[in-house]
UniProtKB/TrEMBL annotation:
Name this polypeptide is given: Elongation factor Tu
EC number(s) reported in the record: 3.6.5.3
Keywords: Cytoplasm, Elongation factor, GTP-binding, Hydrolase, Magnesium, Metal-binding, Nucleotide-binding, Protein biosynthesis
Classification via NCBIfam families: EF-Tu (TIGR00485), PRK00049.1 (NF000766), PRK12735.1 (NF009372), PRK12736.1 (NF009373), small_GTP (TIGR00231)
Keyword Nucleotide-binding recorded: yes
Gene3D superfamilies linked: P-loop containing nucleotide triphosphate hydrolases (3.40.50.300), Translation factors (2.40.30.10)
Length: 389
């Protein structure tokens, strides 16, 4: 019982790299960890460990997403690097990536390419408000051409409402920094400074009623049932009374831990384990929600904006019509639902449509909530709730 308590020394942010295939997202991610490891504030994660990340189950969807952790002088970051374009679409639209800010990687040799523009559009749609640009491969680029690339990126960002004139654009070389070249090592430092100063601390809704979607349930012999997951909003302390939605029971939190360390108080954004008093192991499941009692009202009907994945993104090859009945992955829950396409009646792979959904059972819903649509074990769509009821 003498475990060292977790000490919150710096604010935590979630960021990630975006950009066209091969522009150097993974190389840059590796370079960031290397430069910070040399400063003594992180662990170096080499390229092949990032790019061959194991499949992780995030929010009920099997998503290929690599997290690396590092600290600057002022902040603690969890950084995601996604290996393919289809993964960006899924992770961004369902909110699984949960980015507070993004580093847009653009090759100085190629400039803006289709996925550069697409990721900027996606970022805007899912509410990523701050982008910092890394013009990568600057070691190999011609100076004048790089000037043009920078102009072009600023224009693209302005066109999507990002204030391209003020967005920091930093010329970097992930590859040369990895090789230890001092000039380019410095460029990574400059990029991190830009992220530290330009991406504001996210609003964590710490004052909202507590909510934790259950990802996993385990038993600790002699202590009881433990649920794990990321705190979506609010705070929780030992002694707090909570409701477990889905299980239809109330309990009291008798332990709070993060990464195996006890903590006084967990807050929005933290990954935690909660020990619940008097709850049987089989009474609670993934998909249930632990919340401040009476703070959530479940419903079964909602309107949403849905993107139907194209066949190239691993989606369907045939259109979706009214009456289609797939599975909806909402937070950590998995619920069947009927889709009504209204007047459109048909949605082809690649389309973005407005739909009304009637779920097979009630779950807590709210505008802005992201979800994935799955069928036969694969993701075929992603959406955001626009109206409940
Ligand atoms: N000259 C130069 N080459 C680079 C630099 N960064 C990356 N590369 C090369 O560009 C290629 C692609 O790099 P990755 O880091 O895999 O690119 P990525 O954006 O992660 O690619 P995907 O994950 O497939 O979209 C590799 O051959 C890298 O060695 C750089 O700063 N300078
Ligand atoms: Mg990559």
């Amino acid at each position: 019982m003498s475990k060292t308590a977790y000490v919150r020394t710096k604010p935590h942010l979630n960021i990630g790299t975006m950009g066209h295939v091969d522009h150097g997202k993974t190389t840059l991610t590796a370079a960031i960890t290397k430069v910070l490891a040399e400063r003594g504030s992180g662990t170096y994660v080499p390229f092949d460990r990032i790019d061959r990340a194991p499949e992780e189950a995030a929010r009920g969807i099997t998503i290929n997403i690599a997290h690396v952790e590092y600290e600057t002088d002022t902040r603690h970051y969890a950084h995601v690097d996604m290996p393919g374009h289809a993964d960006y679409i899924k992770n961004m639209v369902t909110g699984a990536a949960q980015l507070d800010g993004a580093i847009l990687v653009v090759s100085a040799l190629d400039g803006i390419m289709p996925q550069t523009a697409e990721h900027v559009l996606l970022a805007r749609q899912v509410g990523v408000d701050h982008i910092v640009v890394a013009v990568n491969k600057a070691d190999a680029g011609d100076e004048e051409l790089t000037d043009l690339v920078e102009l072009e990126v600023r224009e693209l960002l302005s066109a999507h409402g990002y204030g391209g004139d003020t967005v920091p654009v930093v010329r970097v070389s992930g590859l040369r920094a990895l090789e230890g070249d001092p000039r380019w090592t410095e460029s990574i430092g400059a990029l991190l400074d830009a992220v530290d100063t330009y991406v504001p601390l996210p609003e964590r809704y710490i004052d909202a009623p507590f909510l934790l979607p259950v990802e996993n349930v385990l038993t600790i012999t002699g202590r009881g049932t433990v649920v794990t997951g990321a705190v979506e909003r609010g705070t929780v302390r030992v002694g707090d009374r909570v409701e477990v939605l889905g299980a239809g029971l109330e309990s009291v939190v008798t332990g709070v831990e993060t990464f195996g360390k006890p903590m006084d108080e967990a807050q929005a954004g933290d990954n935690v384990a909660l020990l619940l008093r008097g709850v049987a192991r089989d009474a609670v499941r993934r998909g249930h929600l632990v919340a401040a009692p009476g703070s959530l009202a479940p419903s079964s009907r909602f309107t949403a904006q849905v993107y139907v994945l194209s066949a190239a993104e691993g989606g369907r090859t045939t259109p979706v019509t009214t009456g289609y009945r797939p599975q909806f992955y909402i937070r950590t829950a998995d619920v069947v639902g009927d889709i009504d396409l209204g007047e459109a009646a048909v949605a082809r792979p690649g389309d973005t449509v407005t739909v009304t959904v009637e779920l097979g059972r009630e779950v807590p819903l709210e505008p802005g909530l992201g979800f994935a649509i799955r069928e036969g074990g694969r993701t075929v769509g992603a959406g955001t709730v626009t109206r409940v009821g």
